[in-house]
Amino acid sequence: xxxxxxxxxxxxxxxxxxxxxxxxxxxxxxxxxxxxxxxxxxxxxxxxxxxxxxxxxxxxxxxxxxxxxxxxxxxxxxxxxxxxxxxxxxxxxxxxxxxxxxxxxxxxxxxxxxxxxxxxxxxxxxxxxxxxxxxxxxxxxxxxxxxxxxxxxxxxxxxxxxxxxxxxxxxxxxxxxxxxxxxxxxxxxxxxxxxxxxxxxxxxxxxxxxxxxxxxxxxxxxxxxx
Length: 226
Description:
single chain; mainly alpha; two-stranded antiparallel sheet; 10 helices; 2 strands; 69% helix; Perm_prefix_1; membrane; transmembrane
């Protein structure tokens, strides 16, 4: 393998091979080979021509379709803020569950999550170090769009399975034997309704993930930062 080809492969080592990557590799390698040939024809030695050609392209992150250069710590802080907000809202909606000993655990889990998210958000948001704030990284927004669709799909399946399970537990025998449903008073009705409500608390996860592509665009490095 030629030195320039090895160099190009190393530039792409963190990217999975696909048609776009292979085409881009071939184009860059062709450009570097042409650059090397020009330098050699102008009197430079092959070794120096190769090194000069390498310096011509030191990164390809900006050439990958969907790649965005963002302020990574601002992005993660904003993501934590959204997750914290959604968790607080979910926690508030579960406060009435304290009246039902079967469900107060959900409220405590969310409260602990708020403490953890709140601490992490505070430590990042209060960090005024310029290097921390200005740290940049390339992320691929297409991956986050795919992640968003995947998380929503998993959540939808989870909720559907949970609801079918609860329905089976409470009403399967009534449906099977065509018996009327009997609920022993308001408390029992509230318990059943809460069991149906519990899986929907987890919607905070896909909602938080849903925001990530927008946060990428919001935290993208623009010309005003250059």
